[in-house]
Write a structure and sequence with these properties.
single chain, about 425 residues, mainly alpha, about 0% strand, globular
């Protein structure tokens, strides 16, 4: 256990020294492999073995689809539809922000893309209408959490890869919790709007306006249905659904919005390759370090601690929550999933959890690191768009973190929230 603690201390030291996350993981892993009497060749084998999987091919496809969608101006239509649907409520563009994230999450599955695309549009718009910067950033960063929960989700693809739980079941397991958390976030938007005594002009509700915006955005709205129904009914695999998303995005951009040009494709491919490379390099580094932890019997020690010391499902979930919140302050959610997904599965099985039920809960918890400083990727992007110091966004963001925690507790207490849809579809 002391060796394990030393590993994490050295890893954090590299991070604080300014090393990129993947380099910190890789260097730490190689150091301990070599000190354990293993050859450098083993490190290379583990590096390539970590990403040598057809399951991971879904990631570059969904990343590319997301970038095509951004160029196709789908986000603009989603925002207009969301504004006509909920923009009249007290909270105005805050509700629009959350609802757009819910729909956008059902298209591309990346919280970073959500924070950049929706934040880039709505944060300036909210400021122009009179909303405070910290309010706009908190709504954007908080609602960006919905993209990795509502399917398709790149994080759930990763979790499924490390645990061998069918991706389709994980996707369906995350749908209802994602919608539930989104609705609770809209409640936070409403309460915060009232607390700040805003009196900002809002969109007047109109059935005609709703119908018109729905008609103009229906091409974007049916995209999640195409992706998810194809996976649910076994027509396509998650990887093939990523290809389907790309083809539909190209069709939508070239022939419906006509905002996508041939000259845009090389830039989209380069940007997608860079994003995918960052994810894959992180997986590579985490794979090497995970191998070190396996050799130190880390999984067995954590399992024994959970069974012999904690002894109950409730305390196990609370323990995981605390651990992943702390790790999330320093590590990206991708790293946490890569390093701990298999350990989480073993612990969940030990206490009789349904694998999908426990997997969705843990994926939600692991994502909290993306909106907590200092690493907080979604928070960092949102603050960058608003040009707001990160420390000024923490207090208004706390209610959204609390809502995610409440959503997790509800999923724990009522397993059907997670397992109901997968069981209904897959039996």
């Amino acid at each position: 256990m002391l060796t394990t603690l030393l590993i994490f201390l050295i890893l954090l030291a590299f991070i604080f020294l300014g090393f990129p996350i993947f380099m910190a993981l890789l260097i730490t892993g190689i150091i301990f492999l070599l000190f354990g009497g293993n050859s450098m060749q083993l490190s290379i084998i583990k590096m390539f073995g970590s990403i040598n999987s057809l399951s991971l091919m879904a990631i570059p496809f969904f990343v590319t689809a997301g970038n095509i969608i951004l160029k196709s101006k789908i986000t603009n239509k989603l925002v207009k539809f969301a504004d006509s649907a909920v923009g009249w409520m007290p909270g105005g563009l805050g509700h629009v922000n959350v609802l757009t994230s819910m729909i956008f999450g059902g298209i591309q599955g990346s919280g970073c893309a959500d924070a950049a695309a929706i934040g880039g549009m709505l944060i300036p718009a909210m400021e122009e209408q009179g909303y405070d910067k910290d309010y706009a950033v908190a709504v954007t960063a908080g609602s960006s959490m919905l993209s990795p929960i509502i399917p398709p989700s790149i994080c759930m693809i990763l979790y499924s890869y490390y645990t061998e739980i069918p991706v389709g079941r994980m996707f369906m397991g995350g749908l209802v919790p994602g919608i539930l958390i989104g609705l609770m976030m809209m409640g936070v938007v409403y309460l915060e709007y009232k607390h700040r005594n805003y009196d900002i002009p809002r969109t007047k509700f109109s059935i005609k306006n709703l119908a018109v915006t729905f008609y103009h955005s229906i091409g974007a709205l049916i995209m999640p249905l195409i992706i998810l129904s194809g996976i649910c009914f076994g027509i396509v695999t998650p990887t093939e659904s990523g290809v389907l998303a790309i083809l539909y995005g190209l069709f939508y951009g070239f022939f419906i919005t006509k905002s996508l040009k041939i000259k845009d494709i090389p830039g989209i491919l380069v940007e997608s390759a860079i994003t995918t490379a960052v994810v894959y390099m992180t997986i590579v580094g985490a794979g090497v370090l995970s191998n070190v932890l396996v050799r130190l019997h880390f999984q067995s020690e954590i399992q024994a601690f959970a069974i012999n010391v904690l002894g109950s499902k409730f305390f196990v979930v609370c323990f995981m929550f605390v651990v992943f919140i702390i790790l999330g302050m320093f590590l990206d959610p991708t790293v946490i999933i890569a390093m701990f997904a298999s350990t989480v599965l073993v612990i969940g099985n030990s206490f009789g959890f349904d694998p999908v039920h426990f997997g969705v809960i843990m994926t939600i918890i692991m994502q909290l690191g993306a909106i907590t400083p200092p690493v907080g990727t979604f928070l960092f992007i949102s603050c960058g768009v608003a040009k707001l110091p990160m420390e000024k966004s923490i207090k208004p963001l706390l209610p959204y973190i609390f809502v995610v925690f409440i959503g997790m507790i509800l999923c724990f207490l009522v397993p059907g929230i997670v397992t109901g849809l997968p069981n209904l579809i897959y039996g």
